[in-house]
Amino acid sequence: MLINQTNQINGSDHSAHEAYYRRVSLPAGDVHVYAGDELFGAMGAKVFEMANNNLQIPNIRYMSYTPDVHVGVGTCIGTTAVWETESAFVSPSIVGSDIGCGMRVHLTNLKAENLRDVKLRRQLVKAIEKRVPTENQTRGRFSDIRLERVVAKGLHGLPGKYVPDAYTPRQATSLTRVESSGFLLDEDYLSRFPDRIWHRAHRQLGTLGGGNHFVELQAIEIEESSREIAKQWGLFDGQIAVMIHSGSRAWGGAVNQYCGSEVAKAMRQGGWGTADPKLLFAPLHSEAGKAYVHLMYSALNFAVVNRHLIAYAIREACKETFGAKFEMSTLYDLMHNYAWEEKREGESLFVHRKGATRALPPGHPDNPKAYAATGHPALIPGSMGTASYLMVGAPGGAANHYSICHGAGRVRSRNATKQLVKVEEFSQAMRIGREDEIVVNHRSLEAILDESPQAYKDIDQIIASVVGAGLASVVAKCRPLAAIKGV
DNA sequence: ATGTGC
């Protein structure tokens, strides 16, 4: 494929940032790539073939890759794709398979020294695992929660006991500190799902899921240049944070399955298509497009509530371990797989993010009230055994529709990792057997070998690219002390 | 990432 590159951001005065940006011209259009030389050089031809297919979707206005980009189904993970709402197409492939997948961070009143004892970390991991099911087969819990209310209204559909401060306006932090606590949808679309899907999804409320999903206990290290923002967010050095990475579980899967065939049918009728039969898209205002958007919103609602219930269970486990003095507040809940409308200077855009995190700068009007002055926290997970990051958007992010990376980004497939990496190497990366061991819930690391850090790019390089490109800055680094993984 | 079917 013929590829031309330039590296001038919007032709403006971003010269200091140009080492981390390239506009790559492909036959079907341009993809804007944010990455340093080494990460850019490591991007395979397949990543650009996928871009060339995605750029053939009618009326697309902008497409970009973050430095952690890697091949996915139909569309790469690390994609931002933008249309004007009026003439938009919506693509289930660009949203991706785990609709609403994202991060949540809670701040605790614990300090790193409270978790210095490896036995205590093990005890805590066990207590959390008891309340946050990490296996697929779980019994029905939360019998007081109505799933039809949850998928229709998000956090607003939960009984008050799960959102204790939601109804006292002066302290309504848990709702305002969530990217969106409820997506509005036409509930008629929900009647399309059979009973077995409702039952399975209800059983899965508050469960972690497999793959890269996790709960981690981390110690916060504030970036010197960000002390003021860190203070306003309530962070302190050595503070223990709880980071949760999970998504919409089987509910989102059912949405993809049902809508996928409807969208494929609409594509045949409309005569649309690309070289990749797995790249699905339909006009936003068509029947198939509308059905997908409404049901995608139901999966976003499920995902937000799922992370919220995982946090609720973790709070219970920590209270059991540390007593009633334990406190845990919400820092933020932020997705990286979704599509929705965003306003830009009076214009309405339809923005898809797949493995891309929105990071708004200070003062941007779309920030929630609690973060209007600082910009909202952008929550970026590292791979197992490596640090995660709390970041904040920079004004330069406007050039990329405020999208930054969503993590380290896979560098080799799950199968290739299992062939290449030895359990012993994974064990060393987790410092197993040492006093500073990162405690993992699994008795054997073998079951999660495909999640070893060797399967991922270097998160520090990814972060350096995002910062270097002027999209965001680091507020704090979060070092892992314990991890709970599903399978 | 996921449930389902081989």
Describe the structure.
Its cofactor is Mn(2+). It catalyses: a 3'-end 3'-phospho-ribonucleotide-RNA + a 5'-end dephospho-ribonucleoside-RNA + GTP = a ribonucleotidyl-ribonucleotide-RNA + GMP + diphosphate. Its EC number is 6.5.1.-. The protein has 487 residues and is of the alpha+beta class. The chain has a single domain, classed as tRNA-splicing ligase RtcB. Helix content is 30%, strand content 24%. The protein contains 13 helices and 19 strands. The protein has helices at 37-42, 45-54, 92-95, 118-131, 147-153, 173-176, 195-204, 227-233, 249-270, 287-322, 414-420, 423-429, 459-468; strands spanning 4-6, 21-26, 29-34, 62-70, 77-84, 89-90, 102-111, 214-222, 239-246, 282-283, 328-335, 337-344, 347-354, 357-358, 377-380, 388-393, 403-404, 439-440, 472-485. Strands 7, 8, 9, 11, 15, 16, 18 and 19 form an 8-stranded mixed beta sheet that branches. Strands 1-2-3-4-5-13-12 form a 7-stranded mixed beta sheet, with helices on both faces. The mean pLDDT is 93. It binds one DNA strand of 6 nucleotides through residues 96-98, 101, 136, 200, 209-213, 247-250, 252-254, 256-257.
